[in-house]
Amino acid sequence: MKARKGPHVNLVIFDVDGTLIDSQNMIVTAMDRAFAAHGLAAPSRAEVLSIVGLSLETAMRALVKEEADALAGPLTEAYKAAFFDLRQSEEHHEPLFPGALAALDRLSGREDVVLGIATGKSRRGVNAIMDLHNLHGRFATIQTADDHPSKPNPGMVSAAIAETGVLPQRATVIGDTTFDMEMARAAGARAIGVGWGYHPNEALAAAGAQIVLSHFDELDRALEAHFLEEAAR
Ligand SMILES: [Mg+2]
Q1: Distance 39 CA to ligand 1 centre (A)
Q2: Residue 23 CA to ligand 1 centre (angstroms)
Q3: Along the 233 residues of the chain, how does pLDDT read in single tens digits?
Q4: Which of 8, 54, 66, 117 is least crowded, fewest Cβ atoms below 10 Å from its Cβ?
Q5: Claim to verify: residue 15 and residue 31 sit in the same structural domain
Q6: Ligand 1 center to residue 53 CA distance, Å?
Q7: How far is the CA of 232 from the centre of ligand 1 (A)?
Q8: Ligand 1 centroid to 179 CA: how many Å?
Q9: Ligand 1 centroid vs 201 CA: distance in angstroms?
Q10: 76 alpha carbon to ligand 1 midpoint, in Å?
């Protein structure tokens, strides 16, 4: 990877689930199995999708509510086991969203851009995605749930900014949930929402998205507007 540092470099930080990859079937299936393993009725698909992006145990607590203290830990373990099994099976299906790879290719080629990841997934989960889609080497900084509090805490974005040495206002988070937008704004970064993930467009806008994209093809133009705005300061 070329060294890109200095006050004019832009950091583009991607969320993973619901933004780069469509993991909803895997997540919903693993959640069904985790709840079944503990003799519990599974939450609805809509409930599950509303918490994707949070770190796993935080997500579980939100789903089980009353008995969260007793159940969140065991359900988290059951979910991890179910997800791991699914990854080994023929049901494994976590496709990149249309246009994602081309967008990463275009941005990787730019001298004024470095790429990062901020995800509620574990490091192991991110590595599995990198292996699956051959994405290794594209990201200058990768922040996971293993090392930070759950989104919307700004820790992941602040760490990505520190690791790459960019100015906070030159960092932009691309994500599909309100957690991503709030995390970005709390870290002093910009936020771009994507409309193909798991939270509604209006919620993203209300949480601080400067724009909500309807296709990856629109990303370059949205970023360019940010870059030019910063350059003009
Ligand atoms: Mg997401």
Answers
A1: 28
A2: 9
A3: 455 666 789 999 999 999 999 999 999 999 999 999 999 999 999 999 999 989 999 999 999 987 878 899 999 999 999 999 998 887 678 999 999 999 999 999 999 999 999 999 999 999 999 999 999 999 999 999 999 999 999 999 999 999 999 999 999 999 999 999 999 999 999 999 999 999 999 999 999 999 999 999 999 999 998 888 887 87
A4: 66
A5: no
A6: 5
A7: 31
A8: 8
A9: 13
A10: 18
Regarding whether 104 and 78 lie in a shared domain, the answer is no
Asked which of 55, 88, 121 is the last residue of a domain, the reply is 88
Q: How many domains does the chain have?
A: 2
